[in-house]
Write a structure and sequence with these properties.
The complex is a heterodimer of chains A (158) and B (753).
Chain A lengths: L1 E7 L2 E7 L5 H8 L18 E4 L2 E4 L12 E3 L10 H9 L9 H14 L5 H7 L9 H21 L1
Parallel strand pairs in A: 1-5
Antiparallel strand pairs in A: 1-2, 3-4, 3-5
Chain B lengths: L2 H14 L32 E4 L2 E3 L5 E5 L8 H13 L6 E5 L2 H6 L19 H26 L6 E4 L2 E4 L5 E3 H9 L28 H6 L14 E7 L6 E5 L2 H4 L4 E7 L27 E6 L2 H10 L2 E4 L9 H13 L5 E5 L9 E9 L11 E7 L2 E6 L4 H12 L6 E5 L13 H11 L6 E4 L2 H6 L7 E9 L5 E10 L13 H4 L5 E8 L14 H19 L3 H9 L4 H13 L10 E10 L9 E11 L5 E11 L6 H21 L4 E2 L2 E2 L18 E5 L17 H16 L17
Parallel strand pairs in B: 3-4, 8-18, 16-17, 20-21, 24-27
Antiparallel strand pairs in B: 1-2, 2-3, 5-6, 6-7, 8-11, 9-12, 10-11, 13-21, 14-19, 15-16, 15-18, 19-20, 22-23, 23-24, 25-26
Helix pairs in contact in B: 2-4, 4-5, 10-11, 14-18, 15-16, 17-18
Classes of the chains: A alpha+beta (158), B alpha+beta (753).
Bound molecules: FE2/S2 (inorganic) cluster (2 copies).
The site of one FE2/S2 (inorganic) cluster has 12 residues of chain A, from loops.
């Protein structure tokens, strides 16, 4: 066990965990933040996506020791980091079915918007490659395009 | 509501007016006060005054509706709340849902048990439950109005109820629902109020609010089974014999007991299932006990990662059992092939005399579908605490009755000693119906009594221990008459699993309508060692794929357009089917020429009652594909028309149909479980391909134009899964001339010149 310090959603936290514990389980088990989901454990599905130092990262596949001191944003902190528009759209457009994958999808989407304000379909395909077994993909794409439109409109107004 | 129903409803509602008639604690008192965090999807939770076990109203007007329907992602729980809201006339923004407690249902003699498959996640519009919900809403509204009339000393019929406000028309005085709820709860209603006619509905069929779960999903606060937190909880990682039916031979706990956080290594032994207490029979619904415990071993630790690491390090030896002798899946399927080669099996439906048909063009084709895994995104899991006289559990069950009775069977406790908390469900598609997962959770917790244990299957374990889609092989023969229409049709089908249904083969309208005058369907049941279960439209998904592909073969042999061919066979039998076919075809520009290498395919089917007119949900898909010369397949467009009678929530229906199209496409293109030495090979998404956002067709059109308006609100989530597969195969045939009779299609070479 070793003491690891992280900044999670703006809060400085320290946990005592085995150094090889994946960030996913640090968040879920040790910090009690269960919004980040376990899907596959091998960086395939994206259910566990968080922002690690600002970048979309599959938290099942980074260990605690590798990221000591890092800054992490999870779905619980998304609304404070500009994701509220997305979250509202996700509800309004009834994107989710079971919803289990959607925290990861939202985190991947929010990270994409940091790179590009108006993502193309190809960019969406590449950057929001999460698995959704319920098949909400058409709605995810529609919600992303709508969000881009709203953000562009907001930007123009500002 | 029939007279008898009405009367029993009256008694029920009389008993529960004022709450406590049976001496059962009010719902709010049962809410755990120990900091247990499974809100907001708690059972037995929430404050407010109970109008009925289904409905509570709080002073701030929040209406809590306890739905007997778990939420698997199809919006069924929201639908039940909408049904209540239509008659209650409450403000939708003030409505919350909780999952009704199956224990309370048991204690209060089936208070939530209404309709077919009560407390199963599939149906928000089950006809009886829908009527019950509407009547309960009307009854609560009536009592609120009466309470207001009493308070104001005015005639009740001068009081309107709308958006959670009661208004006295002559004076304009108002009261909020929450202000009179306590008095209303004490009002006894001897004559239930009439319900609105459907034409008077203002909400159902009109509004498409987003699912009530949506905001919590979007902010990460939604609580699935895997998210449950109970004070003092420990974690278990579970491993069962990789070959289904095998047994634990030996293991060496010493090796791992000293690892950090590890508390215990426990063994699950099927012989330790205690059985349902004598004299009890499981009375309801789908909650049949279909499962037994599987031999396995679990490591219990403070945290999941510790448990998993220790489990990986635990030396384990298995006695693989009879399944271990199969080198691969082909060796297992060889049993089916041999049975198929023997000719027919026991005949389950016959019409005319197939042997009397001589001459004519003969078609003979064999089809096969493999095991597939439900692959819900939430791995199997559950939390339970078992003591000598109690079992409390928090589980993402698809059928609460099944979960309750499985726990009773595993612990030997009376049902009133089993308390089950239903959580949100991260997908299931049938996987969580039989509650074999709940049984394993309870079986593990039983070995570590008095402590809440959260058991998590890794993804690998979830997939290795699937209850897979039943593999099916069918050999079809048809003899075509001079016109090219089938005069005789035979099918022999081999079903390799526990779930062995014949929907859409045995009751195919081509057969039951008499359109094909001579038909014979036979089936052979071959239980392989690999366990099977429900997989979105069980067995139907295979049968409808095969029948609709084979009919396409007949049309091609007869040189008749596949749409015309189907219309000739079924348009007269049930014109609603013809409308569905014609709508999908017209919307998809059926018949419009396409460039070389492109093609359209069409297929139609009905779940769950193809053989009955005005029943189930009929779906027709037209799929448009492009296949490159080198054989790369792309699905350009899917057009879907359907008839489920009527719809209560248009957007929710569209979402289910979209999702089912994608599920069906993934199933037919990608999915297959194979074996090595009897054990599952594909245990994670690196080798079990799943469509991602870039793989889905760019255009999926859901057309509502074929709805008949017949008096039914049938569920739509399963119906597309078979026809979309057949339509894809038929489109590939149109594009390349290659007929695909086996899935997954990704294994087929589609190149053409
Ligand atoms: S759980 Fe991390 S990518 Fe699937
Ligand atoms: S909404 Fe269920 S997995 Fe995506």
């Amino acid at each position: 066990m070793s003491e690891i310090t992280l900044k999670v959603n703006g809060q400085l936290l320290s946990v005592d965990v085995a150094p090889d514990t994946p960030l996913l389980w640090v968040l879920r088990d040790h910090l009690g933040m269960t919004g980040t989901k376990f899907g596959c454990g091998i960086a395939q599905c994206g259910a566990c996506t968080v922002h690690l130092n600002g970048e979309a990262t599959r938290s099942c596949s980074v260990t605690a020791e590798a990221i000591s001191g890092a800054e992490v944003v999870t779905i619980e902190g998304l609304s404070q980091t500009g994701g509220a528009v997305l979250q509202k759209l996700w509800a309004d457009m009834n994107v989710s079915q079971c919803g289990y994958c959607q925290a990861g999808v939202l985190m991947a989407t929010a990270a994409m918007f940091k790179q590009t304000a108006k993502p193309t379909d190809a960019e969406i395909d590449a950057l929001v490659s999460n698995i959704c077994r319920c098949g909400t993909y058409p709605r995810i794409r529609a919600a992303i395009h709508k969000a881009a439109g709203m953000m562009v409109a907001e930007g123009a107004a500002a | 509501m029939s007279e008898i129903d009405r009367r029993s409803f009256l008694i029920t509602s009389g008993l529960f007016s004022g709450g406590m008639a049976l001496g059962v604690a009010p719902a709010s008192a049962a809410e755990p006060k120990d900091g247990t965090s499974h809100a907001p999807w708690a059972t037995d939770g929430s404050g407010g005054v109970e109008m009925h076990p289904w409905i509570s109203i709080a002073p701030d007007d929040i209406v809590t509706i306890r739905v007997p329907t778990p939420e698997v992602g199809n919006g069924a729980a929201t639908q039940v709340a909408m049904n209540v809201c239509e008659e209650l006339q409450c403000d939708w923004s003030k409505v919350r849902i909780e999952f009704a407690s199956v224990r309370r249902d048991y204690l209060e003699k089936g208070i939530y048990t209404v309709g077919r498959q009560p407390m199963f996640s599939g149906h928000g519009t089950d006809p009886e439950r829908m009527k019950m919900a509407l009547q309960l809403g009307a009854s609560a509204r009536e009592r609120l109005q009466r309470a207001a009339a009493f308070r104001w000393k005015v005639w009740q019929d001068e009081i309107d109820a709308k958006d959670s406000v009661l208004t006295h028309r002559p004076t304009g005085r108002t009261l909020r629902f929450g202000e009179v709820a306590a008095e209303a709860a004490n009002v006894l209603v001897y004559n239930e109020p009439d319900m609105k006619s459907e034409a008077e509905w203002t909400f159902l069929g009109k509004a498409s609010p987003f699912k009530l779960t949506a905001p919590a999903i979007a902010d990460g606060s939604a609580v699935y089974g895997i998210d449950v937190k109970v004070p003092g909880m420990v974690h278990a990682a579970l491993k069962q014999c990789p070959v289904h039916g095998g047994k634990l031979k030996s293991h060496d706990p010493k090796v791992v007991l000293g690892m950090p956080g590890v508390r215990a290594v426990v063994v699950v032994d099927p012989a330790k299932s205690r059985g349902v207490p004598k004299g009890l029979t499981n009375p309801v619904g789908m909650g049949m006990i279909l499962t037994t415990a599987q031999s396995g071993v679990a490591v219990i630790a403070d945290h999941y990662w510790q448990a998993k690491k220790a489990l990986d390090a635990l030396p384990v030896e298995w006695d693989l059992g009879p399944g271990g002798k199969f080198a691969d899946e082909k060796a297992v399927y060889a049993q089916g092939k041999a049975a198929l080669a023997k000719g027919k099996g026991p005949v389950i439906r016959a019409r005319g005399d197939v042997s009397s048909v001589k001459g004519g063009k003969v078609l003979d084709a064999s089809y096969a579908t493999p095991w597939c895994e439900n692959a819900a995104m939430e791995p199997l899991n559950g939390t339970a605490m078992v003591t000598a006289d109690k079992c409390e559990m928090w589980v993402p069950a698809q059928d609460q009755h099944a979960a309750l009775w499985v726990a009773v069977d595993e612990t030997g406790l009376m049902p009133d000693k089993v308390d089950m908390h239903q959580t949100l469900i991260g997908g299931a598609f049938g996987r969580r119906t039989a509650s074999d997962d709940v049984r394993m959770v309870v079986a593990v917790a039983k070995e570590y009594p008095g402590v809440p244990v959260k058991v998590i299957w890794s993804r690998e374990e979830t997939m290795a221990q699937g209850r897979f889609r039943t593999p099916i092989m069918t050999r079809f023969k048809a003899v075509l008459d001079k016109e090219g229409m089938p005069e005789a049709f035979t099918a022999h089908t081999i079903l390799g699993g526990l779930i062995a249904m014949m929907s859409s083969l045995e009751d195919s309208p081509y057969v039951v309508s008499g359109a094909i005058p001579n038909a014979e369907i036979s089936s052979t049941f071959l239980p392989y060692h690999v366990q099977t279960g429900a997989y979105r439209g069980p067995c139907y998904n295979s049968h409808s794929f095969m029948v609709e592909s084979f009919i396409d073969e007949c049309a091609a042999a007869a040189k008749i357009d596949p749409l015309d061919y189907r219309l000739r066979l079924i348009d007269k039998w049930d014109p609603a089917w013809g409308v569905v076919l014609k709508t999908a075809a017209a919307k998809a520009d059926w018949g419009k020429p396409l460039p070389k290498g492109e093609g359209r395919g069409i297929a139609i089917a009905n779940w769950p009652n193809a053989g009955l007119r005005k029943n189930g949900t009929t779906v027709c898909c037209v799929v448009h594909v492009a296949v490159s010369r080198s054989g790369a397949l792309s699905v350009k467009q899917v057009d879907l028309a359907f008839d489920c009678g009527k719809i209560a929530n248009r957007d929710a229906v569209a979402a289910q149909l979209e999702g089912a199209v994608i599920f069906g496409l993934n199933s037919v293109i990608n999915e297959e479980i194979t074996l090595k030495n009897g054990a599952v090979v594909e245990t994670n998404f690196d080798v079990y391909p799943m469509m991602r956002i870039g793989d889905v067709p760019p255009v999926i059109n859901i057309h509502f134009d074929a709805l008949s308006g017949d008096d039914r609100f049938q569920p739509v989530g399963e119906a597309p899964v078979g026809p979309v597969a057949a339509a894809l195969g038929n489109a590939i045939f149109a594009a390349t001339g290659k007929r695909l009779r086996q899935t997954p299609f990704r294994k087929a070479r589609l190149n053409w010149t």
